[in-house]
Every structure is written in C-alpha cells, then in structure tokens.
C-alpha cells in the first residue's frame, strides 16, 4: 500500500480478477479509480454540494440523493449509475465531503440492462474497499 498526503492505492482480489483502488485528494475534489485487471473505461462526475449534504438529513431515505453524471462511457448502464450513486453516499458521509470524479472498469459489472448472480456481492466488495480507502 502506497501512502502520501494526496495518493493512496490498495489492491484486492475478487475471484480471478485483480482490482486496484486509488484515491487522489485535492482541496475541492476527490478522484477515485477502480481498475479491474488494469482497465478503466467509464468516468463519472459525482457532484456533492455542501447544501445537498446539509439537506441529506431532511431527504427521504429511499431517494438516491446523489446523481452521477457520465463523462466517458455508456450513460445508459444502470449498474454503473447505481455503483456510482452508492459510492457517492459513502463519500457524503465523510467529515469533509467533496465532489468526486470516479473512473472504473464497467465491463466487470456486466451489461447494464440485465441482472446477474453476483451483482450485489460485487457492489458490496467495491463499497467495502472504497470505505477502507477513505478511512
């Protein structure tokens, strides 16, 4: 694990895939990369405004609350939208939440228009590793 004031990287294995989780911090932005077998093919902007964070307690728990914007990749992949939204919720819980640029390998999650066995487990695996990275 490499660690400095601005960069942190961890590596984890899931089945036969190697996933690298990277965090790059700036004063007003957080960059998170999730490389699957060294591949990233989708980038999203996850805007987390201060006002949205303040109003979080007032919003409905069933509401997504975080609306990722696809910058590069397939904007119709619902699985990636869900993953990005959940990562946004994790970041929003930090002491100093910031806007996030998230890049990841979307192919690892499969087609965005159908569900597969293991989708939830993959989401939980990614969220668990992102939480560790942000600690």
Automatic annotation (TrEMBL):
UniProt protein name: CIC11C00000002430
Gene3D superfamilies: 3.30.230.90
